[in-house]
Design a protein that fits this description.
Layout (H helix, E strand, L loop, with lengths): L5 E5 L2 E7 L6 E6 L2 E6 L13 E7 L2 E5 L4 H9 L4 H12 L10 E6 L4 E7 L2 E6 L4 E4 L7 E2 L7 H10 L5 E10 L2 E7 L4
Antiparallel strand pairs: 1-2, 1-10, 2-12, 3-4, 4-5, 5-6, 6-7, 7-8, 8-9, 10-11, 12-13
Length: about 190
C-alpha cells in the first residue's frame, strides 16, 4: 500500500518517513539540530517547492516532525511558548494542504519527553490530537491519525523501523528520542 509521507509520534519518540513515487532521489541530512530532506547529488533538478524542507527540528524541550515547510513555523511557535496543540493547529491552518495535483495533506507532530501531539490538514479537515501512544498519520490512505504498533526505543531504532515498514516506496527517514536529558536524532537514508 502506498501511503506517501508519514509521521509516527508518541510520548518521547517520533519518526518521519519520506515515501515517494515522483521524487525518490532524496535523503536526510543533519544541520545544527535540524534534519532536512533534500535532493541527492544524482537527483534531477526540480523547482517543486515540496521536495526540500526541514523535516525535524528541535523546539523547546522536544522536537517537531513533518512533511514540509510547516515544520519551521510550528517549531518557532513552540519556541515562543505556544502549547504544542496550538502551534500545530495555527501553522497547519495557515499553510493549509499542499497546492499540488493531489491536494496533499500536511502531517506533523510535536514530541516531548512525556507528551505528543499529532496533526494533519487536508482539503476537508484540520485534525490535531494529543496522543498517549504511538500514532500514525500519512498523506494518503491513512490521513486520519490512528494508533500504531511501534516498538522502537531509540532514535536509531525508530528511523530504521519506520523506514522498513511495509508501505511502498521508502526513500529516507528521520527520528528523535526525547527524554528529560535531551534529544537524540537519527537518520536512515536506505544506504546504511
Amino acid at each position: 500500500m502506498y501511503i506517501g509521507r508519514f509521521v509516527v509520534v508518541g510520548p518521547g519518540l517520533g519518526a518521519y518517513r519520506v515515501s515517494s513515487r515522483s521524487f525518490p532521489n532524496r535523503h536526510v541530512v543533519e544541520r545544527d539540530g535540524t534534519l532536512t530532506v533534500g535532493p541527492t547529488a544524482d537527483a534531477e533538478a526540480t523547482d517543486n517547492p515540496y521536495v526540500s524542507y526541514n523535516c525535524l527540528r528541535e523546539a523547546g524541550d522536544g522536537v517537531v516532525l513533518g512533511n514540509g515547510s510547516h515544520v519551521d513555523p510550528v517549531a518557532e511557535k513552540v519556541e515562543m511558548g505556544y502549547p504544542a496543540r496550538d502551534a500545530l493547529a495555527l501553522s497547519l491552518l495557515a499553510l493549509d494542504f499542499e497546492k499540488d495535483d493531489y491536494d496533499t495533506p500536511r502531517v506533523a507532530g510535536v514530541v516531548g519527553a512525556e507528551t505528543a501531539v499529532v496533526g494533519t490538514v487536508r482539503r476537508d479537515a484540520l485534525l490535531v490530537r494529543e496522543v498517549d501512544e504511538p500514532t500514525l498519520v500519512a498523506t494518503y490512505e491513512k490521513n486520519t491519525p490512528e494508533t500504531f504498533t511501534f516498538d522502537a526505543e531509540t532514535a536509531a531504532e525508530a528511523a530504521h523501523e519506520v523506514y522498513d515498514l511495509d508501505f511502498e516506496h521508502p526513500v529516507c527517514a528521520a527520528a528523535a528520542r526525547v527524554t528529560e536529558a535531551g534529544v537524540q536524532t537519527a537518520v536512515e537514508n536506505g544506504d546504511d
